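Subject: Sanity check before I submit

Could someone independently write out the structure tokens for this chain? I want to compare against mine line by line before I put it in a report. The sequence has 358 residues.
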Amino acid sequence: MKVIVEADGGSRGNPGAAGYGTVVWSQDHATMLAESKQAIGYATNNVAEYRGLIAGLEKAAEVGASEVEVHMDSKLVVEQMAGRWRVKHPDLAPLHQQAKALSSQFDRVSYQWIPRSKNLHADRLANEAMDAAASGTVASQASPAGWTGARGEPTRLLLLRHGQTELSAQRRYSGRGNPALTDVGRRQAELAAQYLANKGGIDAVVTSPLQRAYDTAEAAAKALGLDVVVDDDLIETDFGAWEGLTFVEASQRDPELHRRWLRDTSVMPPAGESFDSVAQRVRRAQDRFVTEHGGQTLLVVSHVTPIKTLLRMALDAGPSILYRLHLDLASLSMAEFYPDGAASVRLVNQTEYLSSGM
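---
Independent answer below. Compare away.
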């Protein structure tokens, strides 16, 4: 699907109270698919213009676009994104990089300068955001993210599984035990961190308290310039007496219980924790993320079961999906949760970034 993105940004004073507006149109410019505006505090016109472009590309991805035609009245942004002008200002370089990374997810992106008189919708949204910035309020408004009818800005969770440990390499149950990352695992964490830093747009890093997850999160947080926040509800399942055993060893130790555990999420391993119990605490974490980080993008570093559970919640799927999803070590998935209760899954088990350095 091809769409048109119109974006604008500005500030009262340059630099001053700044904001942006963006709108996504159908290819024939007859149907508005999405729009967004936001006050961004104290910034320059050019920073606000880039922020508008980035928001527009994100909205285009949300509505399922494969080709994007960007229209802006900022000659500087259009020429820099088209590769004809160099990016010299240090404040614009990271924004340019973020916009380029977002552009790479589409089959084709083109950039066209238009006069302000043909960019009135985005201009109006940007001015409303600047007015809000000048008055000290935070204006953020988004249209439905596609045909689902979900409203409001979603909380986007980038779900990163930790890197390799000795137990995971041997395919053994690894729950509350605390094995360290292997050399391979540390390299996986570094590659994931590099990818996420290039992607940008992450507001916070949250992790399970277990060392393998924390070390993976710390690598990403360092690359992103953020702190690591520990959330105990993201800890892996307690496998009890099966901790450290292989699938075959656990099934031989407790054959009937193991068979029931594979079919029924209410069943607990010996002295362990059921998947239903995991779901209760993961739901608490998900509720906190939406309440405390509304409209933000969080990197959530955790384990197989909590990540699968968050994906299950976003899909509103039955418990059998826990046994059918596959998540590789250091893989990335993405789920979005809207303030009205809607949700969507946009990515599952991405690992391409690992192949470049392993």
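---
OP: Matches mine. For the report I'm noting this point. The chain has two domains: 2-142, 155-354.
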